[in-house]
Protein: SDR family NAD(P)-dependent oxidoreductase
Amino acid sequence: MSNTPPNCAILGFGYLGRPLAQKLYERGAEVAAVKRSLSSDDINLPIRLDTADLNHPDVFQEAFWQQYWADKTTWFCLLPPSALKDYCGSLRQWVALAEQFGVQHIVFCSSTGVYGERVRECDEHTPPEPQTDNARHILAVETLLWESRIPNIDILRLGGLYSAERHPVSRLLLQKNISGGKRPVNVVHQDRAVDALLQTAFDPQGRKLRNIVEPDHPGRAEFYAAEAAKLGLPPPDFNPEDISGGKIVRSIFQDRQA
Structure:
């Protein structure tokens, strides 16, 4: 792994993109990023931050791509399918732009959701079984990247993201008699996900697929009760009679375990 920071460009300057940009900058990288609109938190950031409507048909002809992205050797895509009207179509144009500029490394934030919900243990060799539109869109972009001319591709399939500031337990507390309390969780803390993205930026070595999940897989009821206690909240109301199981996602790459 190189100690020299690559100059990076980030598509998706939010929950993962902002802390990733900060860490890259602290290590001496030049960073450019794009988001939909600016907020007060964006003032005087030490990176090049542009705004764009990524759903506009001509967005990838904007001058800032040539001016501020063409010289960045590593590009990140951290956008979920919900961020774009035509996820695959928009990212196909984005990848074509990367090919045009001679980008050497793309890091794509994928999801363990591509494995579906069937009860089984999954690792990087397990065939995907996407069951939702979002999972199918993500898998289609993975295929697009594998077929691209970019020499170094890293696809990180992240587990469910959480942190104290944005925790799914808050939504669960609004529900009653929740199903699936025994199903194992496949999660990764925001900090660990950002660290995995950062490590990957420094290590372009061909084409790699990684699952980024925490090694422990307690049941949802157990996990979220413990997380709620950390936040001073009551445990979510899971149905104790539902004993249905779910998948467990692991990684065969010990060096990148979350």
About this structure: The mean pLDDT is 94.
